[in-house]
């Protein structure tokens, strides 16, 4: 009876099964994290869009961001991400990608701080989109993305 074998002595079949289960757990964790990130980025984009809209329609100044940060932190004390600085990034995100199609674009799949890096370091929208595409394609970390941007910015133009 194999149930009485000491731990770790169940054979190769068990080892293969365990390896497969570990891979499935990792894939599920990655899918869950990706899904959470996409929802969070979409929420941030929507908040940014609404801030822009309300500032335009109702003439609200930048002070509304500080008040909104205070109120959101009070309503969700266990959540991070509602600082005035982050709310300004949300507004900048909505300015950079104003169309509702944003949620279908590669940029919406990037982690939040990758998007903040793009907003800080790349002013041209076409270039931002290019970097977003390449980041997804190659799985660049934020450090690699920053290096790619800075390296490209420091390149000398080719001689004619």
Automatic annotation (TrEMBL):
Superkingdom of origin organism: Bacteria
Domain YhcG N-terminal: residue ranges: 20-152
PANTHER family: BLR8175 PROTEIN, UNCHARACTERIZED PROTEIN YHCG-RELATED
Record protein name field: YhcG N-terminal domain-containing protein
Species, as recorded: Caballeronia terrestris
